[in-house]
Amino acid sequence: MSSITIHSTGAVSAIGLTPSVMAAAAMAGISMIKEQDYLSSTGEPYRMALVPDECLPVLDNGVTRQSSYRYRRMLQLLTLALEQIELDRKTPLPVMVNLPDNLRIDGQSLQVLQEIHRLSGQPIDWINSRVYQLGRAGGFSALQDAWSLIDEGQIEQVLVIGVDSCACPRTLLQWEKEERLLLSNVGDGFLPGEAAGCLLLKRTSEHSQIQLGAPAVSQETAHFYNTEDVCLGKGLTAVFEKACEPLRTPVRHVACGLNGESSHIKEWGISVNRLDDSQLDNQASLIHPAESYGDIGAASAPVLIAMVANMLGDSDIEGPVLTWCASDYETRGAVALWLQENR
Fold first, then answer.
1. Which domain holds residue 124?
2. Alpha-carbon distance 8 to 87, whole Å?
3. DSSP states of 167-209
4. I need a surface site. Which of 1, 34, 297, 318 has the fewest CB within 10 A?
């Protein structure tokens, strides 16, 4: 019997240039969050987690026409992640790409896919590829569409990508105005980061690889920017229950996109309490690597999944593992991973 697996992963962040290094650093509690050269409106340095400039490749001429420093930096991060993926570079491949919801870029989605083609040398299946701008949980929307393509028998493999960078003064200033960044005068906020993550999903009958359940995506009307409604965690609860359906044993670990803001913590607390013992082990641990690499926004889902896949593959943790994220706007997403023997 065939199943959908994570065939190959690639990821980069401030705590490592591969998923395995990142996973080891996160489990060891290593943090790369520190004061950077970017200054707040009061002259206080922002604390962020950035990949060192010397680790980033130079973009070849002709890769992109975009002048945005943030966007070009995202392409540099993505180059490092794409180099780790086992691509055949012969057969056109569907690509699902999630970008920040607040990113301003010129042109259409087709240009983004063309740039990925130039970076990777991989032929693109233009018809089945998609570009999303859904923030932190948008990677699960990309993953859900990729999973469906394979599950319906249309495609054998799909590449899922998420990338984001906080290296943008305009974006940092906007977050500061909203009092969302942890500064000396703000006690409830997050610390930004940057990352890129890639997942190659594939249909296979080999049970030794990491199995992927059906991704779940839902909408939460009472999101961060909707201050009129009270968040009751309905959207997050829905994706938790859906993601746990294929599991035969309770979830042993939860890897999440919590960034430190109290609104997301409250939503998590309400939602997780609705899961019963058959869905979530009472001793389940919570993995929240944002304390190591910052809030990596649109890259959250593929990076989390890439790290968890490596932890499972190296027997650092036992599955099943539930991964989830909540965007600043409506999107909520989750998916379960496991090795065949610990489903």
1. 3-204
2. 9
3. --HHHHHHHHHTT-B--TT-SS-B-BB-EEEEEEEEEES-TTS
4. 1
